[in-house]
Write a structure and sequence with these properties.
The complex is a heterodimer of chains A (215) and B (223).
Chain A (H helix, E strand, L loop, with lengths): L1 H41 L3 H16 L2 H14 L6 H26 L3 H9 L4 H31 L11 H12 L2 H33 L1
Chain B lengths: L6 H42 L2 H16 L2 H14 L6 H26 L3 H9 L4 H31 L11 H12 L2 H30 L7
Helix pairs in contact in B: 1-2, 1-4, 1-6, 1-7, 1-8, 2-4, 3-4, 4-6, 5-6, 6-8, 7-8
The chains are: A mainly alpha (215), B mainly alpha (223).
Chain lengths: 215, 223
């Protein structure tokens, strides 16, 4: 049994690499989507902010699995055909983007309005106030929740195995049926996920501790 | 079987999906209760236990928060079966989601208890209350208020996670949707309806959570 497990390890580790890549790409996309959504939400035009609000509620209120299935199977039926890998990245990014938008918003709201006015009174231009005063403070506030979202994203990539996107969980499933040792393989997969996510959760704690010192 | 078209198609889909709502809610509530019981136990151990217990609880929380629900479900449903522990898909789903959820729930409970200023505990001891009395009379009433909003958000999270149980063939909304897709090939309509069904349950709960947060002024509480 141990031999079989060792035989599987290189394949599992390669698949873990795929998981990390999938997570990294969708995280970067989510950061961008989140920024666009946060800006739309803050827009003065009511229709624009309503669209962003609606999008965020729908995403937060439905399972990521349903979103992935809609994107992969539903859109294919409507003529938009993509690979399971592309669908997974788009789905995960679209999902996380909604949460990231909320994180940005919370960060922006955490800096007192008076600072904008004070900066202006000192003769700074608006972009200077935002760039030199607001964003540095925002960064410390939003970093821990962003790292948290990255952890969530690592775990959510596992769901992409259900649309057969190539990553760790799919490989574990294939190997489990090939060697017929589901218990061992899924436990090993779990441990690999833990090893990927745990450093990030340590990072979250360090960031949060630092943040408390700053306050 | 004839499948209707147009608006009737949506009605037909929703009518099929609704038969899975019962299972979805049963799995959500089952895993919620399991999470809360385990978490109450662990949060208690963390508060009243020694250094060793704390490390154990902390490790449990850290581990299960870092491993995907799907992996845990597969270990419980497919993995345990190979060593003779055969669970039906609904029990496996409740167990998997419950164990996963208990880690988050422990953090929520602990956060709620920690948020009560320590001075209150000292004051209560000073007037002669026992440590159980301090917990029951001083900490618990305040902690419940703090814990309610994140607990509601946590329940929404559980509700959404039940969809993953379709992978172990628990007959909830998502599995019924797959079956329907295989029968009718109307996947865009079906998955839209799936989202609609989940939204009908989750949106009111999310509203309730933010209303609670507003009412209780629990700005420090996070999901």
């Amino acid at each position: 049994m141990m031999d079989h497990l060792l035989e599987c390890m290189p394949q599992l580790l390669r698949a873990a690499g795929d998981t990390v890549r999938m997570m990294a790409v969708s995280f970067v996309l989510a950061l961008i989507i989140g920024a666009v959504l946060a800006l739309m939400r803050a827009a003065r035009v009511r229709a624009v902010s309503s669209i962003a609000r609606f999008y965020i509620s729908v995403i937060r209120g439905t399972p990521v699995l349903a979103q992935l299935f809609f994107i992969y199977f539903g859109l294919a039926e409507m003529g938009v055909v993509m690979s399971s890998y592309q669908a997974a990245i788009i789905g995960l990014a679209a999902n996380s983007g909604a949460y990231v938008a909320e994180i940005y918003r919370a960060g922006f709201e955490s800096t007192p309005k008076g600072q904008l006015e004070a900066g202006g009174a000192l003769g700074l231009r608006r972009f200077q106030v935002v760039g030199l005063i607001i964003v540095p403070q925002m960064a410390t506030v939003i970093l821990p929740p962003l790292a948290n979202q990255a952890i969530i994203l690592i775990k959510e990539t596992s769901v992409a195995s259900l649309i057969a996107a190539p990553e760790l969980m799919l490989r574990a499933r294939d190997l489990a049926s090939e060697y017929f040792m589901p218990l061992e393989l899924y436990v090993v997969a779990g441990i690999i996920y833990f090893l990927l996510a745990f450093p990030l959760s340590v990072l979250v704690r360090v960031l949060e501790a630092r943040l408390r010192v700053h306050r | 079987m004839t499948v209707p078209s147009g608006f009737d198609l949506y009605l037909y889909i929703v009518r099929v999906l609704i038969t899975g709502v019962e299972t979805t809610i049963a799995v959500t509530l089952g895993s919620l209760v399991l999470s809360m019981v385990v978490a109450a136990l662990f949060a208690g151990c963390y508060r009243f236990g020694g250094q060793f217990t704390r490390v154990l609880v902390q490790s449990y929380v850290e581990f299960f928060r870092a491993v995907p629900v799907l992996t845990q479900l597969f270990v419980i449903y497919f993995g345990l079966a190979t060593i003779g522990i055969r669970l039906d898909s609904i029990s496996a789903a409740i167990l998997g989601l419950g164990i996963n959820g208990s880690a988050y729930c422990t953090e929520i409970f602990r956060g709620g208890v920690d948020a009560i200023p320590h001075g209150q505990t000292e004051a209560a001891y000073a007037v002669g209350l026992s440590s159980w009395q301090v917990f029951r009379l001083i900490i618990l009433p305040q902690a419940v208020r703090l814990v309610l909003p994140p607990l509601t958000n946590f329940t929404v999270q559980l509700l959404k996670n039940t969809s993953v149980a379709s992978a172990v063939a628990a007959p909830e909304v998502m599995l019924l949707a797959h079956n329907l897709v295989n029968e009718t090939f109307h996947s865009p309509e079906i998955y839209l309806c799936v989202c609609l069904v989940y939204l009908c349950i989750s949106l009111p709960m999310m509203r309730f959570a933010s209303w609670l947060e507003f009412r209780l002024g629990a700005t420090g509480a996070r999901s």
